[in-house]
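Feature request, filed as a ticket because there's no other form

It would be nice if the structure record came with a short human-readable summary line next to the tokens. Right now we just get the raw output. Example of a typical job, pasted below so the devs can see what we mean:
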Amino acid sequence: MLHVCIRLITLIVAVVVAPVAPVGQEIVPGLGAGRTVAPGVVHFTVTDTALLDPPAPISVQLLRLDLAQVELTTDLALGDRQGRATVLSAARRRQAIAAVNAGFFALHNGDPIGPLRIDGELVSDGTQGRGAAALVPGARRGKAAWLFDRASVAIAAMLEGGGSIPIDGVDTTRALGALMLYTPRYGPHSDTAPTGIEWVLEPPAGGSGYLVKERRSNVGKTPIPRRGLVLSYGGLTPPAPLDELDAGDRLTLRETWKPASGRAAERWRTAADVVSGAGLLRRANADVRSWDSEHLASGFLGRHPRTMFGIDRAGFAWLVTVDGRQPDTSAGMTLVELQRLAKRIGLTDALNLDGGGSTTMVIAGNVVNQPSDPTGARTVSDVLLVIPRRATPPGGAGR
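Raw output as currently delivered:
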């Protein structure tokens, strides 16, 4: 009887001292209590100095996303055109639950650096083979599937009459002797000088590919059709077979993806969204051992503000911002420290996104971290948005 009483008392004490999350909060080991900000979205704040080696002040914001309840999607910061805007303005425009900055970009014009696909449309190419993540189709209903790898993509125009020619860039400034492709998200026109040849492409009434509606020489600034594209060559003597491409001809565009692992190239080609970073941290539940192949500058590996995206063992997506360059409140993280954080969260796959002054997290219309620029949150080129999951038609597959 005495033995039974002791066990009962022990059980009661264990129940009393076990951590109990307040209403609207959830406790995750290693992170503490998180606050539910929307169905499927839980926000955590961590200030554990032991995350750094040697220890230093740190401030980390984390969002855990249930992809059965919310969508995680890419977008340009300005939405319908290339340029720069704050993460806050992008989140408000899309009425997003939350958002973070995404890929790297050219400061002068907001041109994304690395592959970027939005709603199935490739709006930026990339051949550097740096870390990237792709949202692939064919996932079970209500479960999005993200692939992580180092990936590059090349594009070629395949002419119906025979022959092909590589495309040197997507939605970027045209160079002499280069062939560029411009999508409607670049802007209202190609923004080119009258020193080249441009072809207006539109989907044909029947069949696949594109129909050349017009060939324009010595004009520039060709309007981009809302449902079409513009090919633009820098110069007046394009190489064969491009020199004979004229109105009425047909062509198709071929993307060739090269994941560094050599796996799932076709799934990358058909991805709904692709976001790029620099510094693949974890893949297939293992730490990445070297970043030499991504050709990162040595200073990039040190402590800086960081933005990270990853997926854990249970299939939850995580968005993380680490404040930095603020010695009294947050020192930032090295790539190795960020990698350790990814492992502590339980991420099987993780990618370092753009950081520094770009690092910004928005929740419910407010910036919740402390961007490092003295002027506040920096304008960026593209974002990751958390939005309520769209209703799926009966029998349809969730995104």
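Something like this underneath would help us a lot:
The first helix runs from residue 2 to 17.
The helical segments are 2-17, 87-93, 265-269, 335-345.
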